[in-house]
Each structure stands twice: as C-alpha cells, then as structure tokens.
Amino acid sequence: MLPFEFIIIGKPVSHQTKDKQRLRDWKAKVRHVAENHWPHSNPLGDSMQVTITHYYDAPHGEEGVPDSDNIVKPVRDALNGVVYVDDYQITDFMSRRRNLNRSFRVKGMSSALAEGFCAGAEFLHVKIEVAPDPSELN
Predict the structure, then answer these.
(1) Residue 138: inside a domain, yes or no?
(2) For residue 10, what are the domain limits?
(3) Segment (H or E) for 91
(4) Structure pTM?
(5) CB 56 within 8 Å of CB 124
(6) By three-state DSSP, how is residue 127 classified?
(7) How far is CA 33 from CA 46, 56, 126, in A?
C-alpha cells in the first residue's frame, strides 16, 4: 500500500490566491491525478508521513515562485477521501522547493520522480509513507 508517490505537472496554486476558480481547478487536477494513480478503492485510515517537493523553473531568480507553505494546503485538501480519510492523519510532514535549473544527483530514483524530470516542466512530487512510530523518535 505505502509508500505511494506521484507527480503533478504544472505550477501549483497558492491557497492564498484571489482567483478561487483557479484554486478549485488546481485541487481538482491534483485529486484527479491522485485517483488515477491510487491503487486502492478506499482511502487508508492510518497515520501517514507526507513529503511534497516543488520542482520549479526559475532560471533568473525566484520571484513568482510561490512559498512552499502556501502550496501544500490545496494538495493536502485534494487528497482527502482519496489516499487518506482526512489530513488529520498526517502526523509528519515535509515541504521542499528545488530549482530545476540546478544539477541533481538522485540515488534510487523512483519512476514517478523520473517521470517528473523527463516532463521538462515544473512539477510537484508527492510521496506518502507510513508515519514513523512516535515511540522510536528522538
């Protein structure tokens, strides 16, 4: 079941956008991609760890690149009822940004991440795993 990962091609939409239709369209796109990749008929009820990495294209600076904390809420909301029952199940979360105009060395690249790099466009990589056991954390 887990880990589960997928990519969404395109520039993510911030939950703070004034264009609410664009935000609804983005959430629908994320949900649609997740549903097409999710191998189960029902969402899981377990605690989860989620990592969202925004691979953005900014060759001349980062103006116009949304803050990572503003792009994760629409993604987390879109996955409600698909991968997990509700995003309260996310006990561990990481959000990252990476400029596609840099070099990367990736060991053990997943097919989902390879698909994103081969797309030649900005994308989000979403990885969902079983949450670590809190009794084993330092």
Answers:
(1) no
(2) 4-133
(3) strand 90-99
(4) 0.91
(5) no
(6) strand
(7) 21, 19, 11
